Each structure stands twice: as C-alpha cells, then as structure tokens.
Give the backbone structure.
Amino acid sequence: MQSSQSIALSPELATAVTHSARELELHGGRQNGNNAAFPTDTSPALNALMREYEHEKTPIPVSFRQLVPWLKVGERATHYLHPYPAKLLPQIAHFFLAAGTLSRKGDTVLDPFSGSGTVALETVLSGRNALYAEVNPLARLITRAKTTAPSPEALRQAYSLMRDRSATHFTDDIPDVVNAELWYAEEIFRCLAQIKSAIQLEQNPTCREALLIAFSVVTRKVSRADPRFSVPVRRKVATSSEPDRPGHKEASEKIWKIFDWQISANIKRYKELEHLLTESPRIRYVGPDSRALRLFDEGECGTLSHSAHMPESFVDLIITSPPYVSAQKYVRATSLNLGWLDLAPSKGLSALEQRTIGREHIRKSASGIDKITFADAEAVNFVHEVAAVNPARAAITLTYLSEMNAAVAEMARVLRPGGYAVVVIGDNLICGRKFETTHFIKHMFEAQSCDLRLHLTDRIPSRGLMTKRNGTAAVIAEESILVFHKRRSWWDSAPA
C-alpha cells in the first residue's frame, strides 16, 4: 500500500497534519510524553477526516505517507526482518495507533489476521498490549522474531559459533521441502541442510529463532525461484550469470556470503528495535483461527499450553487487513520456507491451506453452494451469477463470505462497547465481475452493532499482491480503510 502520488488534502486536514509536524519540530522531534517510535498524536488529523466523512458520506482518498510524514520510507525497526506477501503498510497501523481518541498506552490491540506482524510490532512500539491470531506458522515465527529482540552481541556470537559448527557437523536429516529438486541445485540443498542442522544445536531459544529467520530468507535467495514473484516461479537460467549446478565450494561461498549480509542487516534492525522499545513488549498469540479467538499460555519461542476462549469485550482496538477471496496464495508463497523450518511437511501444505480463510481451493465435500448459508442477499445473488460461469469459483467465494462473516462476529464479540475496529480491504474481480468486498464487510459489521465512522481509500501501485488470475480476476489498484465504532448500547448511534 505504497502511495507514489501526493493527495490533495482538505484545508482542515492539511492544517492538522502541518500542526503535528510543527509540534514535533518545536519539541525536538517528539511531543511531551511521547516516545521516539510514536512522537505525536494523530487525533487532530483523524478527527478532521471523521468530520469530513460525516458531512460528505463518500470515501476520502488519502496517502498515509502524507498523514504521517515523520515516519520515513524504508527500514523501521524489524519490519523488514523477513519478506511476506501483501504486507500492511506500517504507516497505516501507526496512524491509528497514534490516535489517542481510539486507544491509549496500556490498552489492548488485536489483529485477528496478523500476517507477519506489522500491527503487532507497531502496537508494542506504541506501548500497548498486542494480541495476534494467524494460521500460517511461518508468519507466527516472523512475528515472534520481530517483537522479541535477542541481544545483538549474543546473536553475533551465536552466528559465529553456528558457522564453525556447520563445518564439522554432518547430518543425514533431509528437510521435507516440497519439490526440492526443482528449486535447488544438489550442492546448494546439501549445504543448506547442514547449516539448518547446525542452527538447531543453538541453546538460546531467542537466538535460535533469530538464526532460523535469517536462514529462511537465505533459502529463498539461493533457490531457483524468481525473486520478482512472491509465489515460487522458476527463474530463467539464461538470465542469470551464475551456474545452475554449482560445485560444493561455489555453493558454500554463495550461501555464506548472503547469510553474512542477512545477519549483519538483522542485527542493525534489532538494535533499532531496542532503541525504540520503551518497555518490555507485551504480546500474546490468540490462536490460528480468527473465528474462535483464544488466550494461550505461551512459553519460550511460541510453545503453547492450555487455552481459554477470549472473554467478551476483552480488546480496546482492532486493526487488521483480512485476506482477499482467492487472491493471495499465502501457503504457496511460503511453501519453501515452511519446509526448511519444519513448520509444515510437503504433504501437509494442502491441509494448511484448508485452514486458511481466502484460500484458492476448497475440498469437493464443501464445494456445494447450497451447503453454505450467508444472510446478505446481494452476496448470494453475486455468487449465483458466478456459479453460472464457474461453479468452483462461486463455491470458493461463498465459503470466503461465510468464514469472514464468522470472523467479523468474533471481532465484534471481543471488542469492548465504544471501541473501534480498523479494517483494510479492497474490491477485486471474480470471473470478470466486481466483487465488492468492502460493501460486504461493511454489512457484516453493521449486523454486529458496529457503525461505519470513516471510509478512506489509498492507492496500491506496488505491494506484492498476487491478485491476478487469467480470465478470473484482476490486479487490485486501491484498498479501502474502514473504521467501525461498536455501539455502547442499542440506542447509541453517535461516535465516542
């Protein structure tokens, strides 16, 4: 969600943004009482946008980079620790977390579709408590690594010792990487397997996960996958100056050169995270299913014990970017990493996809649209129109709507009365027809006593979204940011 063009701001909004920037200059880079990561309150800009929307009742185009100009483009703490498809722009999470009218320091913020933890990281940087739900185990690992910084010196030493171990530690363990022979030269695969085995011997759990995260990045960079695409696609050998079948020495030198650089870059990121964190991060995993949020007792490095259902009205603010219907291939995009890190065996990728909302395939046993109920008449009519052209796509779409409806009901249940939910979503095409995700999500929240208080739009010139299918979809060029307010009681229809 990266805006390449400036947006003409309304006079009131422009004044609010300019005022915030001037306040920062006057107070040496931050307003009194605010930390370095969140230097100013964005409430004046947010309130101006809400007033404008209340008056006009039409979506307001914005650029979030303009709304938070103090957040520079590029690196910020550990956001770029590991690539992940369709990441949320940090400026969006920052803008709403910095608004004191929505939440305050010490409040609890939930992201039920956490991905690789953009909202979770910004939440802990703001001094709030972060809750995150995510089905993909790689994304959960990235989130933990982003928000739990090892000592830079400890990580540097752990890497040095691991490097020495890998030269003498041999293993017969063959990682279960899907179609490994297609994606890796034999010597590259052999060297990676040896390094992976050496990493597992690291005793410090935080350093071990930091090494695994860097290793995961390396496994993709030394593969035959084209780096321009999130989903693995074979790059053409003719376009590369490197041999497709390197010898052992060539393979080893290539891997360690990339690994050295990755560890060095990550140590710098961890140092900045330490600088920006004003207190120990308070973050908690709340399950793999956004439709049934739970409170786990989490031990070191994500080990979980018993859990309980999250109580009603438990969270103060929700910020999330739900998946699109059959648009982003999250499991396929992370399949190589999942195998290398022992997070999902090659034969388990299909089962993981079936637990993912917005999946591109559904089992035949669940494919009949007459077996799925959804209350929105417009959505049902849309699905029946698609069914006349492509029954499989129709079943996938209605499954998505049913599962998202359940997720929205769960969000509304755990959100406190008077709380706000910020949802980032966009429309796309299915079989040549516009699927108005924004419209359907709005209706789902309204059915749960949550009123729309703000509708913003932001352009997406480039964000790594794999949203185009031959003949069935199109590239998503714009997303909506919807802000819902949960009523305190049945007669409450005014904003807090």
Q: What stands out?
A: The first strand starts at residue 60 and ends at 61. The two ends are 29 Å apart (CA to CA). The first helix runs from residue 11 to 26.
